[in-house]
Amino acid sequence: MKKMILPALLAASLFAAPAFAQKPAVKKTTPGTEKAAATAYAVQPQLSTLGWVGKKVTGQHNGTIQFKEGNVQVRGNQIVGGTFLVDMNSLKVEDIKEKEYNDKLVGHFRSDDFFSIDKYPTATFKITSLAPLKGDANGNNATVTGDLTIKGITKSISFPAKVGVKNGVASASGTATIDRTKFDIKYGSKSFFESIGDKAIMDDFTMSFNVIAKK
């Protein structure tokens, strides 16, 4: 009887063995090789600035606009991403002191000729990549690429910036050049209205920013 039981137990164990082999193997990892999760630093609108300059044949205008909210993604001591929301209702003109003319120009910028602010009260920028930049005369250390959305239209833009993280504060500063016609802002553009003459407004405008975000 014992002679029959032992072979039976041996056969049973052999048939059961594949069930153990089907268990997933534990992945071996080396400390430091796994990519650490990024930490979100909150943008501080009250400490951050955003200025704009628009040029025309006969001169230029400049002003400010405010960040509404946002976050900067930080891994270690490096900025690796970020999303920024701009309050279009905060748009101001600074170079015109006469209130009536200032209000008129701001009203024009708010209209469908420009930013359609009543329809699109916010603009957004989302970083898609950052690449190291060396030898920049203005001290910029990164090329920032991201998706800019104005009037519901999203386009990719790139610009140089100075970025860094220190003592729980992430910062980024620089100037981005934006072609307004790509966002359906064609008013006064010589690219679309050739006979406009000295009333032409340049297609490009610039946005100078200084972003402060805290952990």
From TrEMBL:
Residues spanning the signal sequence: 1-21
| UniProt-listed SUPFAM superfamilies | YceI-like (SSF101874)
Outline the extent of the Lipid/polyisoprenoid-binding YceI-like domain: 40-214
Which UniProt keywords are given for this protein, alphabetically ordered? Signal
Which InterPro entries would you find in this protein's record? Lipid/polyisoprenoid-bd_YceI (IPR007372), TTHA0802/YceI-like_sf (IPR036761)
The answer to keyword Signal applying to this record is yes
User: What is the recorded name of this protein?
Assistant: Polyisoprenoid-binding protein YceI
The record lists the organism as Hymenobacter luteus
